[in-house]
Amino acid sequence: MTDPWVALEPGADPAERVRVLRRAHERFTERGTVERPVRSVVADSWRRSAKAGVGPDGGARVELTDGDLGAYRAEHPLARVMPLVRELMGTFAADGEHLLAVCDAQGRLLWVEGHPTTRRQADRMNFVPGARWAESAVGTNAPGTAVAVDRPVQVFAAEHFIRRVQPWTCAAAPVHDPRTGRVLGAVDITGGDGLAHPHSLGFVQAVARAAESQLALLEPPGAAVDDTLELTALGRDEAGLLAAGRRIRLSRRHSEILVLLARHPEGLTGDELLCALYEDESVTPVTLRAELARLRRLLGPGLLASRPYRLTVPVESDVAVVERRLETGAVTAAMTAYGGPLLPGSQAPAVVRLRHRLAEALRTALVARRDPDLLADWAHTPWGEDDLAVWRALAAVRPTAPVRSRLEELESELAAPARWARPAGRAPRSPRHGPMP
C-alpha cells in the first residue's frame, strides 16, 4: 500500500479485507498481537485503546445533553464555521446516505447531521451530539483517532476497535486554530464501505483546511487582534505569542518572562523578576536588563514598559483560560484547554510554583469529578502516566485489567524502597503524585 493513511489500496476486495481484519481484531483482543494487513496507524490505535481500558464490546457515553450541549456548542470556535462545513459536506452526506460530524478536541461530538435513516442507525451506537468518541473512551474511530494523532485518518469497518462500530467506515481530519496551531476538533464523514476510497480522506482534509481559512478571516469575538497578546505556554518549553497578527516563537527565558508579566498586569520590579526567574542569587540585574532589552526588540515598540516592567496591552493566556474554567467548575472545559504542564523544562522558581499549582488544581478536580473518561485522558498523557492518585481514582470507576495492572506497577514502585534498609534519618522516597517539573 502506497499511503498507510488510506484504508484500502486500489483493487482491494472490501469484503475479503473485512474478513481478514475481523480475524486480526479477534487475535488482538485475545492475545494482544497485531498481524498483517492491519495498518500501522490502526495497530498503534488498537494498542492505545487497549491500554486505555477500552473493551471491544463497549460503547459511547453521552456527556452533554439539552441546554449544556447547546451552551457548549454556542461558545465553541467551530460553531463559527458550521455554515461552511454544512455547505461543503451537507449535500454529499445526504445524497450518499452518510453523516457529517464535527467533534471537539476531546473527541466529543458536537454536531451529527445527514441522511435521516443513517442517523437513526447511528443513534443506536450513540453516534449522537454530546457523546464522547475520544479514542480513550471508545477506541479506534476516525474523529477520535484524528484528534489523537493530529492528522487526517480513515477507519474502515473492522479496523474500529469496538465491534458494534465495525459495520461503519469513516474519514476525519483535525481542524486547527489558525493563530495558535492548537487542535480545535475534527470534521468527519461516516457511512458505508464506499468511504474507504482515497477521495473521502482528501475531501475531509480539504473541508478542514477551508474551515481553518475561514477562522483566520473571522475576527476573534470580543476583542480586536491588535489589542490583545495571545500567549500559549502549556505543554511546550518555548511559548508561542500572537501579537498584532504576528506569530512569535519565544526563547525559554523570554517565555518565562512573559508568563510572569501576564500574571502581573500591574508590573514587576527588576528585583521581583530576578527572584522569580533565577535560582542562582549571583545573577546580576545587568543580565536581566539584557534579556528584557532583547525581548522588547522582539515584541516591537510600545509593548514592554519599565519601572515597573509590564506589558502595555492585555494578555490572554492558555493558563488563564484553564484557571477561569476551574473556578467556575467547568472541569471538562478546563481539561480541554490544558495542553500539558506549563513550560515543563523551566526551572524558574515562580514558573515551577505556578506549574505545580495549576496541575494540582486540575488533577484534584478530575479526581473529585470521578469521570472515567476524563481520568483516562489524564492518565494516558506523558505527564499523567505515573500519577498514582489519578490511576487509583481511575481504577475505582473503571477497574479494567489494563488499568488495574498499571496501578499495581505504580504501587509496586512506591513500595520498592521499603524492601531495602535506609540509613538512619533518611526519609523514604516520595510517591509520584503528579507532573514533574
Automatic annotation (TrEMBL):
GO molecular function: DNA binding
Region (Disordered): 418-437
Occurrences of domain OmpR/PhoB-type (ranges): 245-311
Record key words, sorted: DNA-binding, Transcription, Transcription regulation
One Pfam entry name: GAF
An example Gene Ontology biological process: regulation of DNA-templated transcription
Name the UniProt record assigns to this protein: Transcriptional regulator
Organism of provenance: Streptomyces poonensis
